[in-house]
Amino acid sequence: MTNSTIAAGQAWHTPRSMARAGGLHGIGVYVLLAGAFLPIADFFIVNVALPTIATSLQATPAALELVVSVYGVAYAAMLVLGGRLGDRFGRHSLFLVGLSGFILASLACGLAPTIDLLIAARLVQGAMAAMLVPQVLATFQATLEGERKTRAIALYGATSGIAAVVGQLAGGLLVSANLFGTSWRPIFLINIPLGVMVFFASRAVVPANRSPHPAGIDVAGTILFAATLTALLVPLTEGHSLGWPAWTWTMLAAAVLLAVATVTVERAAEARGEMPLLPPSLLKLPSMSRGLAMITLFSVGFGAFMFVFALTVQNGLGANPLESGLAILPMAAMFFIGSVVSPRIIGRFGRGALAAGGLLQALGLVTLIAITVSSWPTVSLIEFAVPLVVIGAGQSMLFSGLFRAVLADVPKHLAGVGSGVLITLQQSGLALGVATLGTLYLTLEPASISHAFGTVIACQFVIVVMLVLCTGLLPRFNKDQVDAQPVEM
Description:
By secondary structure, the protein is mainly α. It has a single domain (21-206, 215-473), classed as Growth Hormone, Chain: A (Up-down Bundle), CATH 1.20.1250.20. The chain contains 21 helices and no strands. The protein has helices spanning 3-8, 15-20, 26-45, 50-57, 61-89, 91-111, 115-132, 134-143, 146-177, 186-189, 191-205, 219-242, 246-271, 280-283, 286-316, 321-327, 329-349, 351-375, 385-406, 415-444, 449-470. Helix 5 (61-89) runs antiparallel to helix 6 (91-111) and helix 15 runs parallel beside helix 20 (415-444).
């Protein structure tokens, strides 16, 4: 039974019967999205809990940055490998393995008695997330066609953004609830029941699928890429708090050399007819080369924004974790609404809709800076609501469009590789945003929290303006890439 036949007759098939026949029912789409939601949300859920974790585990500011960024480093470094393993051994099988490991690592995070053990558990949690998440997009690419695939990918982009802001909101709710006196620990322990539900649901409704032509495992490329990310992000995260000792500069220099070595090894592997971890020919596709650069820049600004916003409203305005989480709610609500309507708008206006979304986000950022500068330190969190709504609307349009632009030209048999590369650079951007702009914030914070916040938001404004100027470089959207009509999943 072909995918098109299954799609045409899905109304007469149960999710389980469609999965057995190799198809993916709409319910299966949402189950996979729920699986992807947990690891994405976990990058951000700790932000509002950082002051509480610092008090509970006597953690330094640099250690708190590591709690966030080490997850991102492991996640980014292993994502392409996760996609490759799914292509070879079965995407649903790797989804279940990654989800199981993520649940166990979440348990270890929730029970960690020291900051060092929490950081170690976050490292494992990020690696397991990298086994899970690439299978979602790859399964959509391999089992869906036409409008259903377009819609599923759009929903994935929406899920990625919504998970970020909902994660921060949920973190505030759970920390403030202080369930049974457990303080911040439920932000990780909540993954256990949710993960178990997704595990058993996916076994019932997600089909087994793998690439008919799986690529080999690029051991050298994987090690070099992971080493490059580590050598770059660790000194950027730790350097300021330690006074930039010699080893931080040595690691940064090593990162440059490792990056050159990675490119050289990957080119040589492809020249031999092998499929490297980051295929140069795939990265040369217009949608990939331009879209990936833009999604990385977007993620740098987004990751930094979520990190510094949580610290500013708690350390600067005296908000508790619950108030900090609720403060981001206007952006979350508008991001969700914008993600639902963005396929129709992008379908009608194409790249212009992405540029308009970027301009809208830039307007919200400028307004946020103006409110902070003019009203500090008596600014009310309610005053942030309007600019956050505008920011969320603009982000949803830009983010959804970039996600689909990147994958537009990826061949189906490279679905796992393409998806892994996309999420790798997205996650690398998030971690880089925390390591760079987050460090800039922590450097300026002792002198003036409002100045530190305004400076980082101004940096994000510059990034957004650059993205607006670059939207014209993206390939034009056609009807196969973006459908303007609502699609029943």
